[in-house]
């Protein structure tokens, strides 16, 4: 009959590569009686039957009541030598009679196989006979450090591993749960159930840690690490329940040893209970706080506001994307916290705040000279080029702006806020959405009016940023430039009139050479062209910035000025 069998490998090494469970309420048999004869009969047939099955699993019965014997044999799904499996199962029968002498119910676990026999029909999927004879999760895992978060994550791992095994042709899979709250857990699962059967029989039971619905064995087996890990994909739709949130976290921790699941109490302590003194700023996501961990490391904590338009979808999007990206011009995500209604992102702390703090404040522009600005411009260009072309995920940021470009201690720019970012394939030309979100003043015309976005949308944003960095003025908002309501129109007027030097921030006019100033303004206006087809790619932009030998195109009048 169908039965699910889980080996959850954790914590303690094997002694002699075996574990056993003897007895229960089944009673004993006597030497040379009919029950023992039935055992001997099964020992001659069950080992070969197991290796003859593609799933390395077999069940059998021998005799009649009251001496009937039910037996089950299983070899690990990654076993490559059938003879080793057969030998292991065959040896388990005499071992059982020595380890559990005259017990009618015995279970032996080995590194490569397991055997159970009993006078009770435990082969029935809904059998509740002798559940306490199995080693349960509650009795063998220590959650004193991990708390409820670790319990939820582990239960989520068991559910997903069971589903993955049911979908496998050999009904076998392995997986790993690596988080900082508990020791690394290695899961090995084999099942004779279909995916539907696993859901009905197994996964419904994974609601509490003390479940005995599945057979669990706990140890730390280094050999399991060499097995191919099972993979369970997140649903692309918005995750709204707690288990989906937990699954997001363990997947991220599994992929990066540097990613940390923080406890909410840690964040509270680090930020002095989110005190006003620790508040760094406010964004669409919610407030951002400075914090300090016990080891002295400074962090920045983004706290999802309950009223935020950005929900778990954007939270998940940002965490999943930025955790997979590594570049000098991207802010480093250290970890996150999901606890109840609280959802927080923990980043490296960058002491020089954001770009807008310097370029839009008259009393601070002197602190950011032309050399700093040029390095920032080049860093932004390199960061976008990485997202568009060189990262293993090709990404359109969609919401880059001066306020979410952070500056490190050396004034190097780093992108943050990936909640609106989109992944695209190398074959995609553009995408579209009915939900236009972002920041007006940075949106390309086609995105603002029709919801169409592409890598050229980010190029438009770069052009706006370049004009802002050169001028020290924002594209829209509190500024009005003569007859124009935005910086793009004003810049075009000066360009057409040959007075483009007037665009430059007064603090850098004496530092920047005329040819460089003209070149950078030309590049900016080329990037903000009305038609996406007329804009360069970021590869082109980087080439223009790095080489004066690259001939720049003459820009046309931008849109809506």
Automatic annotation (TrEMBL):
Keyword Transmembrane helix attached: yes
Record GO terms (molecular function): ATP binding; protein serine/threonine kinase activity
Domain of life, source organism: Eukaryota
InterPro entries xref list: GNK2, GNK2_sf, Kinase-like_dom_sf, Prot_kinase_dom, Ser-Thr/Tyr_kinase_cat_dom, Ser/Thr_kinase_AS
Domain Gnk2-homologous: 17-122
GO CC annotation terms, alphabetical: membrane
EC number(s) from the headed UniProt entry: 2.7.11.1
CDD domains in UniProt: Gnk2-like, STKc_IRAK
PROSITE patterns listed in its UniProt record: GNK2, PROTEIN_KINASE_DOM, PROTEIN_KINASE_ST
Domain Protein kinase per the UniProt entry, residue ranges: 274-551
Class of the enzyme per the UniProt entry, highest EC level: transferase
Catalytic activity: L-threonyl-[protein] + ATP = O-phospho-L-threonyl-[protein] + ADP + H(+); L-seryl-[protein] + ATP = O-phospho-L-seryl-[protein] + ADP + H(+)
Keywords: ATP-binding, Disulfide bond, Glycoprotein, Kinase, Membrane, Nucleotide-binding, Repeat, Serine/threonine-protein kinase, Signal, Transferase, Transmembrane, Transmembrane helix
Region forming the signal peptide: 1-17
Transmembrane residue ranges: none
SMART domains: S_TKc
Pfam families in the record: PK_Tyr_Ser-Thr, Stress-antifung
The name this protein goes by in its record: non-specific serine/threonine protein kinase
């Amino acid at each position: 009959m169908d039965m699910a069998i889980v080996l959850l490998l954790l914590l303690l090494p094997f002694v002699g590569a075996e574990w056993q469970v003897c007895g229960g309420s089944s009673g004993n048999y006597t030497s040379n009686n009919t029950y023992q004869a039935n055992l001997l009969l099964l020992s001659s047939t069950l080992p070969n039957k197991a290796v003859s099955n593609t799933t390395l699993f077999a069940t059998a019965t021998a005799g009649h009541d009251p001496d009937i014997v039910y037996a089950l044999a299983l070899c690990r799904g990654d076993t490559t030598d059938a003879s080793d499996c057969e030998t292991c199962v065959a040896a388990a029968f005499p071992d059982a009679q020595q380890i559990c002498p005259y017990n009618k119910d015995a279970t032996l676990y080995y590194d490569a196989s397991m055997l159970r026999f009993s006078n009770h029909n435990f082969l029935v999927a809904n059998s509740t006979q002798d559940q306490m004879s199995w080693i349960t999760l509650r009795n063998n895992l220590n959650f004193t450090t991990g708390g409820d978060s670790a319990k939820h994550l582990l239960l989520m791992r068991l559910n997903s591993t069971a589903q993955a095994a049911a979908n496998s042709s050999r009904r076998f899979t392995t997986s790993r749960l690596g988080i900082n709250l508990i020791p690394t857990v290695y899961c090995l699962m084999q099942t004779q159930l279909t995916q539907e059967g696993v859901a009905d029989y197994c996964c419904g039971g994974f609601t509490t840690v003390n479940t005995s619905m599945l057979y669990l064995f706990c140890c730390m087996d280094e050999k399991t690490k060499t097995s191919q890990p099972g993979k369970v994909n997140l649903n692309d739709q918005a995750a709204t329940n707690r288990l989906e949130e937990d699954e997001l976290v363990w997947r991220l921790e599994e992929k990066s040893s540097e990613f940390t699941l923080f406890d909410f109490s840690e964040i509270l302590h680090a930020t002095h209970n989110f005190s006003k003194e620790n508040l760094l700023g406010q964004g669409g996501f919610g407030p951002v706080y400075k914090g300090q961990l016990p080891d002295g490391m400074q962090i920045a904590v983004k706290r999802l506001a309950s009223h935020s338009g950005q929900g778990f979808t954007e939270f998940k999007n940002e965490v999943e994307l930025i955790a997979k990206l590594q570049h000098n011009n991207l802010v480093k995500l250290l970890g996150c916290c999901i606890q109840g209604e609280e959802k927080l992102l923990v980043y490296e702390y960058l002491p020089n705040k954001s770009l807008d703090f310097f370029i839009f404040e008259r009393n601070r522009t002197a602190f950011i000279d032309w050399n700093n600005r040029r390095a920032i411009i080049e860093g932004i260009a390199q960061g976008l080029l990485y997202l568009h072309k060189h990262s293993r995920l090709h990404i359109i940021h969609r919401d880059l702006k001066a306020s979410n470009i952070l500056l490190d201690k050396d004034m190097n720019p780093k992108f943050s806020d990936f909640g609106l970012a989109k992944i695209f394939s190398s074959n995609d030309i553009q995408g579209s959405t009915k939900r236009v979100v972002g920041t007006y003043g940075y949106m390309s015309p086609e995105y603002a009016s029709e919801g169409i976005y592409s890598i050229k949308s980010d190029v438009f944003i770069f052009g706006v940023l370049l004009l802002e960095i050169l001028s020290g003025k924002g594209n829209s908002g509190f500024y009005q430039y003569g007859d124009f309501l935005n910086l793009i129109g004003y810049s075009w007027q000066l360009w057409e009139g040959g007075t483009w030097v007037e665009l430059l921030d007064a603090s850098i006019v004496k530092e920047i050479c005329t040819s460089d100033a003209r070149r950078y303004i030309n590049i900016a206006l080329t990037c903000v062209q009305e038609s996406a087809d007329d804009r360069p790619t970021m590869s082109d932009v980087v080439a223009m910035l790095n080489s004066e030998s690259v001939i720049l195109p003459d820009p046309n009048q931008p849109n809506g000025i």
